[in-house]
Specification:
Layout: H1 2-15, H2 22-33, H3 38-44, H4 54-90, H5 109-123, E1 127-128, E2 134-136, H6 137-140, H7 151-155, E3 160-161, E4 165-167, H8 172-181, E5 186-195, E6 207-218, H9 224-239, E7 245-252, E8 255-264, E9 281-290, H10 292-297, E10 305-313, H11 314-322, H12 335-338
Parallel strand pairs: 1-5
Antiparallel strand pairs: 2-4, 3-4, 5-6, 6-10, 7-8, 8-9, 9-10
Helix pairs in contact: 1-4, 2-4, 5-9, 5-11
The structure holds zinc ion.
Zinc ion (ZN) is lined by residues 265, 267-268, 272-273, 275-276.
Length: 341
Amino acid sequence: MREQLEAIRNRAMAQLGDDASAEQIENVRVAVLGRGGELTAIMRGMREVPAEERPAIGQLVNEIKRELESRIEALQERQQRARMERALAEQRLDVTLPGTRIGRGRSHPLTQVAEEMIGLFEAMGFEAVATQDIDDDFHNFSALNFPPDHPAREMQDTFFLPGGLLLRTHTSNGQIHVMQRRQPPLAVICPGNCYRRDELSVRASPMFSQIEGFMVDRTGIVTMAHLKGVLSEFLRGLFGAATRVRFRASFFPFTEPSAEVDISCVLCGGGGCRVCKHSGWVEILGSGMIHPNVLRAVGYDPAEYQGFAFGVGIERTALLKLGVDDMRLFFENDLRFLEQF
Ligand SMILES: [Zn+2]
């Protein structure tokens, strides 16, 4: 019996070497110390051992049991420490290393210019109102005094949609919507996108943006002088106090009289260059006194009310303000271009 116990001890201790794996350790524990293990079996068979030998055998069993248990515990502790050290080494953080820099975003140059333009009008008391891109013939053409066969309808090359709808060709439809919903006095701007069947080119894009603006009040209160004042203030705010502003007689269906507005060339200051075709002036927007037919179309009495309206292209303004010579650059989303602004 004693020899048998010593053999169990020696074999188990040999299996519990320094390089024993966690699985090997567990196997030894179950085979020797477990409920169906060898030592347990010997304890159960104790009654067959002669009575005088029992205490010594029992003591030896307990001794082997303690020895194996403490060996297993020591090995497990050592393995756990090694695992911990490995994990710490792998996950080591150097808190003094610089972090990954996340680039700050910024507004697109067109957005920057649009916001500046809107801000200038808001500073003069205009309210910005969003209106719809998809509209009907009435709001985009008829109410703006385009007769059914007016060549401008073709000139503007409209995107027509099913159901008599279209993509607005200008933000002037906003003027009609707001005047239908509200009563004067009104000082409103309608910024938004417009669509025409143009190829994308240096000067044009099938989608572009405008700011429509208008001011309406009782007859005699809002005059052509106010139109000149508001637009001059806006253009000097945008291009600098030294900018000269010129009004030229023109024609639009929705205004009478109409005026195109030029500014002294932002590149050459009026001396003459390629951008201004050596005239010293560049065209910047269209404007005029709202046509009586437009007022009638929204239910205003032209004898009672009068006002002015204007439309200014955001891309064209941005080209001049930022000194960019190709509109396509605004739509290509090339960061090397965008990051310059
Ligand atoms: Zn010039």
